[in-house]
């Protein structure tokens, strides 16, 4: 049987090691628990196929995560108001462990220049109260 070399493909050692250990462990358990004793060299094409599958899945996952993150950042990007206007952005915060709430806000002009801002510690409450207080202090 011909043993395939990996020199022509850039395969991270961690992939090769992890897949080899896993498949050898499965082969060992199959031998011990099912008395299925096979030729050890026939595992090499199986390792090769699994490593390629893991590499392909890993590269697809990177592409998917990259696209998703770009869409997320695009969605939450600050957009300036029309010329001559001021934009107020506010938010509230709630600490699940202590029930402490606070709010904050910022006012910026159409060029994105900071005009004013605030931060208030509000005591205890819920997330809706924090957000509503943030809106109230903006008015």
Which shape, going by the Cα principal axes? elongated
Radius of gyration: 29 Å
Instruction: Order the strands across the largest sheet as they lie in space.
Output: 1-2-3
What's the main sheet like?
Answer: 3 strands, antiparallel
* Unreliably modeled segments: 1-7
What is the CA-CA span between the terminal residues?
Answer: 79 Å
Question: What would you say about this model in short?
Answer:
By secondary structure, the chain is of the alpha+beta class. The chain has helices at 13-34, 43-75, 127-138, and strands at residues 86-94, 100-109, 114-124.
Describe this structure in words.
The protein is α+β, with helices and mostly antiparallel strands. The chain folds into 2 domains: 13-75; 86-138, no CATH class. It contains 3 helices and 3 strands, in the order ααβββα. The protein is elongated, with a radius of gyration of 29 Å. The model is unreliable at 1-7 (pLDDT under 50). This is Putative ribonuclease H-like domain-containing protein. It comes from Senna tora.
């Amino acid at each position: 049987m011909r043993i395939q070399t990996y020199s022509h493909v850039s395969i991270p050692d961690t992939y090769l090691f992890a897949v080899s250990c896993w498949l050898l462990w499965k082969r060992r358990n199959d031998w011990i628990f099912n008395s299925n004793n096979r030729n050890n060299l026939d595992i090499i094409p199986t390792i090769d196929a699994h490593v390629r599958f893991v590499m392909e899945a890993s590269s697809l996952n990177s592409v998917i995560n990259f696209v998703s993150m770009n869409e997320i950042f695009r969605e939450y990007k600050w957009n300036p108001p029309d010329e001559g206007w001021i934009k107020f952005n506010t938010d509230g915060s709630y600490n699940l462990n202590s029930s402490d709430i606070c709010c904050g806000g910022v006012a910026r002009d159409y060029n994105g220049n900071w005009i004013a801002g605030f931060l208030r510690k509000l005591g205890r409450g819920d997330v809706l109260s924090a957000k509503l207080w943030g809106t109230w202090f903006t008015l």
